[in-house]
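Field reference: sequence -> structure
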Amino acid sequence: EMTNYKRPDSRDMNVPGPGDEEPGAVGRAESAEMNANIARFENDDRNTTIGKSGTSTRAVHGGERQKGGLKARATLDALTTPIVQSATFTFRNTAEIVAYNEGTYPSFEYGRYGNPTVRAAEEKIMALECAEDALVSASGMNAVTTMLLALVDQNGHVVTTTDCYRRTRQFVTTILPKMGVRLTVIDPADMEALENILKTEGATLFFSEQITNPLTRIIDTVKIAALCKEYKTICCIDTTFATPVNHKPIDLGADLVLHSGTKYLGGHNDVLCGALAGRKELIAKVRSLQGILGGVVDPHAAYLLLRGIKTLSLRVQQQNKTAAAMAEMLEQHPTIEKVHYPTVKSHRDYAVANRPGMFHGGFGGVLSFEIKGDGNPWSQDTFDATARFIDALKIPYIGPSLGGVESLVEQVRVVGYYDQPLEVRQKLSITNGLVRFACGIEDTQDLLDDVRQALTYVRPGSVVPSDAEPPMPTGDEEDDRTNAWRRKTILDLPDLRRPITVTADTKCAEAVQLMRQSGIDQMPVVQPLLGGAAGEEEVLAVISMGALSKHMLANPEAVDAPIFPFASTKFVVVEPTATLEEVADALHAYTDRRYGDMGVVIVAEDRGGKKLLRHVVSRVDVLAFETEALTAAAAAK
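Structure field:
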C-alpha cells in the first residue's frame, strides 16, 4: 500500500551512504533505491484494471496510469533532463497531499507554481551565480517587473541608473509611480549621490544593469553592494550583458542578480525567458507573486535554457575576444566618432571596469560605437551614413537582441528609439550615428573584415566637436550673416498663425478637405487639456494627408469614419524655445518619406507628461524664413 511505503534508506540495505569514503557509494545507494521502486510495482493491478476497461478509458490511461517501474528508471537514467510537459502534478493518496501542504513531501502541484524541468534550470543558475535560490520566468521583463512588484511596497523608493534598457525605464517611470513608488535616477558612476540618497532619504531597492544598455556603462558593484548593505537597501544587479562568466554580483555582496535568459544564457535566439537568483527569502517573495501573476516559463523553454547554459562559457569567451578586438579596431578608424566598450581607455568607466576582482575574462560581446557622418550627431546626413554602414554588412543580421551565436546589429535610433522625440534622445545620448553590435561566435577576423568593408560606405564629413548639440559653425562675417537665421527661435518666425487642428472624431473626408483648403499636408489631432485653461489643447497624434489618402483609396467606406485610427502617435515635438536649426534637424530626422509629406514639427510645452500645443511649424515655414534670411544677407553684401 502507498500509505505504508517508506523511502528506502541506504542503511537498511547495507549500502554505504553519501557520507562514507568508499568510491561509488552514492551510486550504489541510488541503484538500490530504484530496484526497490521497481519491485514495488511488480504486483500492481492497475494495468489489469485498465486492460478490462472500455476503449476510451484505455486510450486515456493505457501505458501511463502506472507511473513507476522501468519507465521511472529510464526517465531518471536519461542523460539530458527530460521535458516534463505537464500542467498538473498528481498525488497517490490523501496522505501525500497533506504532506505536500505541510512542506514534508517535496513535489509539484500545478505548473504555475513549479515544474521539474524548470527547477533543473533554476538549480543550474543557482550553481552559476553561487545563489541560495533562483527563479526562472517567462521573459527578462517579467523577471524585472515581478521582482519590483514583489519587493517594493506602496510608497517605496527605488534608485536606478540613467543608462538602461528602455522598457525597464518605461516600467519604473510610468507604472511604479501609480503605486506611489518614488524613483530616483542617478549616473552609473555617481557613488556620492547614491550614498547621499541612501543616507538622507533611504531606499527600498537599488536596481541597475551591469553592463548597461546600450552605452556599456560600468557600475561599481562592490561599493554599491556595501552601501546598500549599510543602509538596509535591497541590491539587485542585472548582468544580462556581463553574464556570470565575466561578473558575479552575489560574490561581490549584491542580494540579487537578474538575467534576460533570452540573451547569453539561452544563447541561440530561440527561447524567451528571464531569471532571478539570490537570497532565499527574497526569491520566495517573488516566486509567490509570480504564482499569482502567472508569468511562468514553459517546460520546453526551460529545456532550451538548460541546453544553452551548458555552452555559455565557451560562447562568451569567443564573444569577449571578438568584441575587444573590434573595439580596438574601431577606436583607430577615421569614420568613427566614439567607441563604447570597457577595454577602450577613453571609456568613462575604464578604471572601475578594469579594477582587479571586478570582471573575469572580459566584458561580453556587445559594444556600441558612433558613426561620425557629417560631424553632427543629430543630422540626417549622419543618420543616412549610419544606415549605409548597417545595410552594407554581410554577416550580421539586422535586428534587436543579443547574446546568441549569430551576430546582430542595430542602429539604436531606429530599433529602440524610433518613436522618441529629439530632446529625449539627446538626454539619453542616443545619436543618429549610434550602432549597437552584438558579436556572435563567428570567427573574429571574419567579423572585423566585414565591418571594415561596410565602413567604406561611410563618407567621413567635417569633424564638428559635440557634447550634446553641435555648436554653430564659425567663419567670416559673411558666413555669420548667412547662418544667423539658424540661431533664431521659433517665436522669431513671422506671422505664426493659430494651429489648424482636428479632433479624434473628425471624419476622414472632412480632414482631407481641411488640409486641402489650408494648403497643408499634416495636422495635429487634439483634445482639450485636462485641467487646462480654456482653449488649451493636448496633442494626441498627427494625421497625414498622404497616409489618410492611401487608407481612403484602399477602403472607400473609411470616408465617413473617424480619423484617429489612421493618425500616427509618432510625431516630432520641440519646446517653444527651440532654435530653427533644431527644428530643421528634427524635420530631417523625422520626415515620413513613405507618403511624400513635407512634414511638420509640433511646438508644445510639457504639462505633466502631456503635450500642450502652442504652434505647428512646417518645412515650408523654415525654408521660407531661410530664403528671406539669405536674400537679406545677399542684399547686405
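Note: The radius of gyration is 31 Å.
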